Structures are given as structure tokens and as C-alpha cells.
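EI: anyone free to look at a 118-residue chain?
SC: sure, send it
EI:
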Amino acid sequence: MDLQEFRNYCLSKKGVTETFPFDNETLVLKVGSKMFALTNIKKPNLEINLKCDPLMAIDLRREYSSIKPGYHMNKTHWNTIAVDGTVPEDKILFLIDLSYDLVYKGLKKSEKLSLSKL
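SC: here you go
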């Protein structure tokens, strides 16, 4: 998976937008008004920050050396995944889906309703 494949996969989900709210390097993908994925587009090797269930996050960090606590994020709820071939692509896609779902569930009812109309 490269940056463009990651970006396209995220943007294919309902209600997703991309922004650069922090600087011109940090791509933030949001569902509604909340972010579910981040990456630095200038890094030569793709690393993705994704929200995760806290217990699953611990298990993933034990299982894969390329999954670390979220860089510059709440370490309990976010992981940073180095996309270096050690984590299978289908697992990365699953983790993107999980992050999206966790964030979507946390949206206000009114925001979910407006996204359902898209």
C-alpha cells in the first residue's frame, strides 16, 4: 500500500473529507467533523495514525513490531502503523475500517443524520 492507495481507500468511505489543518505535510482524513486517520505525506515511508479499541491496540503492538502507540496522539486510543510489509495489507484495511467505524459511532446524532443523506 502506498500513500495514494491509502488516500483513495479512505476517501471511498461515506462522508470522508481530507484536510491539512496542522501544516502542509500532515494529511488528516475525517468522517464528518472528526479525524480517523492521519499521515505525513512528506515521509519517504508511509506511516498511518489510526484510532483503535484500547485492548486491541495493545494486542496489535505485541503482535507487530511496526505498530506503535500513536505518534503525537492519545497513546491509549491511537496506533501508528509503519506500512513496511510486516502488517498484511488486508489487516491495514481492516484497521482503517475499524478507525472509521469507531469515529463514526462517536459523532453526534445530527451529524450522523446529515452524513446518511450523502
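EI: Residues 69 and 79 are 5 Å apart (CA to CA).
SC: 👍
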